[in-house]
Amino acid sequence: MDFKGSDVWTERYRPKKFDELIGQDEIVKRVKSLADSMNIPHLLFAGPAGTGKSTLALIIVKELFGESWRDNFLELNASDERGIEVVRQKVKDFARTKAMGDVPFKVIFLDEADALTREAQQALRRTMENFTSTCRFILSCNYSSKILDPIQSRCVVFRFRLLEKKDVKKVMDRISLGEGLTINPEAFDMLYEFSEGDCRRVINLMQATASISPNITLDLVNTIVSQAKPSDIKIVLDYALAGDFLNAREKLLDIMLKESISGQDVIKAIQKEIWNLPIDNDLKVRLTEKTGEAEFRLVEGSDEFIQLESLLASFILAGGK
């Protein structure tokens, strides 16, 4: 089984044409019409990770330039230096030169553009304005709010959404057919739930599980995912709502230590399980608020065991009322 790196299958099964991109039909339709006219404006792709932003940018470039696309394309991502000097030198030098071929402009793709410093974005807006005749920019980001308004106003903004379950199933079926895998329905549900609509994540999980066995089962997925099981979290919450702090604490520590689950992962699992509890909706809202407070403290660096025990105490107080 081929497992040379976590992105091997991601590259192998990356869509090569517009009609192969799954889950963003309306965006693909509009972008394809722009590419067919051999002229595109500056573009901004915003949305969650693993939804096809980088893939669509590559498809656009390959459709525009054909075999010579590498000569007319510059890609920079968050792993590269992203300061103002890169924009002033590397980006500007590439943007001011004439394109090779029939298309009158080059394309610069700035992946994860929300990681650009504010100063770099200020320099970028002038570059986008001055070299429009010889260069087009495609920016992708997770949070468009981190992109300066003057840059957003120069771009046509497309907002990507997380893939639906049926779309993820199409991707998984294509990979299963190509790699000779069998996936149990329960395993598919778990893979989708953990991926949360992120296609890249589900492909990487499939690759990891397939490296162990071509028959992907629920137990195998649980081994790879290392995620708190909803049934275990429910036991913790049942103990807490019943007022049994010691058993709730013991079960929680057992989940975290024996299964190597981080505090933030436990918080997320608790947040999901709250809405399955047989309690009033008002109480669910209050418990969700307490969960959010605990998660914020964990992000800020607080001790995860103390914060989770404090959260259990909140559940016990709520159960007593």
Would you write up a description of this structure?
- It is a single chain.
- The strands form two sheets. A five-stranded parallel β-sheet has the order 2-3-4-1-5.
- By secondary structure, the chain is α/β, with parallel strands linked by helices.
- Helix 4 (84-96) packs parallel to helix 5 (118-130), helix 11 crosses helix 15 (304-320) and helix 12 (245-258) runs antiparallel to helix 15 (304-320).
- 56% of the residues lie in helices and 9% in strands.
- It is globular.
List the helices and strands and how they pair.
Elements (H helix, E strand, L loop, with lengths): L7 H5 L12 H12 L6 E4 L6 H13 L7 E4 L7 H13 L9 E5 L7 H13 L4 E7 L7 H5 L2 E4 L5 H15 L2 E2 L1 H11 L3 H12 L4 E2 L1 H8 L4 H12 L3 H14 L4 H12 L6 H19 L4 H17 L1
What is the makeup of the main sheet? 5 strands, parallel
- On the 0 to 100 scale, the average pLDDT is 85
Q: Residue ranges: pLDDT <50 for 5 or more in a row? A: 1-5
Strand order, biggest sheet? 2-3-4-1-5
What attributes characterize this protein structure?
single chain; alpha/beta; Rossmann fold; Zinc Finger, Delta Prime, domain 3; 3 domains; five-stranded parallel beta sheet; 15 helices; 7 strands; globular; disordered N terminus
Short description:
With 321 residues, this protein is an alpha/beta fold. The chain contains 15 helices and seven strands. The strands form two sheets. The protein has a five-stranded parallel β-sheet with strand order 2-3-4-1-5. The chain has a two-stranded parallel sheet with strand order 6-7.
